[in-house]
Amino acid sequence: HVWVAGQGPFLDGKLHYNGRLGESLTIDDGRACARIVGLNVLAQVKAACGGDLDKVVRCVKLNGFVNSTPDFTQHPEVINGCSELMIEVFGEAGRHARVAVGAPILPMGTSVEIDGLFEIA
After folding, report:
1. How far apart are CA 106 and CA 8, in angstroms?
2. CA R_g for the chain
3. Residue 39 CB: number of other CB atoms within 10 A?
4. For the chain (length 121 residues), average pLDDT per consecutive 10?
5. Angstrom distance (rounded) from CA 46 to CA 53
6. Sign of torsion, CA 7 83 42 59?
7. Which domain holds residue 96?
8. Total domain count, the chain
9. Is the pTM of this model over 0.90?
10. How far is the C-alpha of 119 from the C-alpha of 121, rounded, in Å?
11. Residue 15: which CATH number?
12. Helix axis angle, 75-90 to 27-48, nearest 10°
């Protein structure tokens, strides 16, 4: 198994989508952010597999944290941005158990953080 620690929405070394869902960011922003985070999760898995994602048997579980206002309730829809990416990449093996919860603040003011567990051959 490979455990991937919490990843944020970094592209080219720059943090994207700072802010809170339900305040300065829309659900579409959150989904796009979660997809970027998913790409970073996959990059960590690929590195752990010696550059070969074909070694991934399945995505077991993702834990998604959404920086949101107290009245925001659409955390699962935001984390779908990452979950859908896993299914695009791994097909049925990308279907996984998942947590999608709100948080009052995340490191560096980011809007989404995701960690994961992957089964490796």
Report:
1. 9
2. 14
3. 16
4. 98 95 98 98 98 98 98 98 99 98 96 98 95
5. 5
6. positive
7. 2-120
8. 1
9. yes
10. 7
11. 3.30.1330.40
12. 40
**Number of other CB atoms surrounding residue 59 within 10 Å:** 27
For the purposes of burial, counting CB atoms within 10 Å of the CB of 107, is it exposed (0-12), middle (13-18) or buried (19 or more)?
exposed
- Report residue 109 CA to chain centroid gap: 16
**Rounded to an integer, what distance in angstroms lies between the CA atom of residue 94 and that of residue 12?**
25
Task: Report the Cα 39 to chain-centroid distance in Å.
Answer: 8
Tokens 């990843």 identify what position? 7
Confirm if 1 and 118 have CB atoms less than 8 A apart. Answer: yes
d(CA 42, CA 85): 10
Is the four-CA dihedral 31, 33, 34, 39 of positive or negative sign? positive
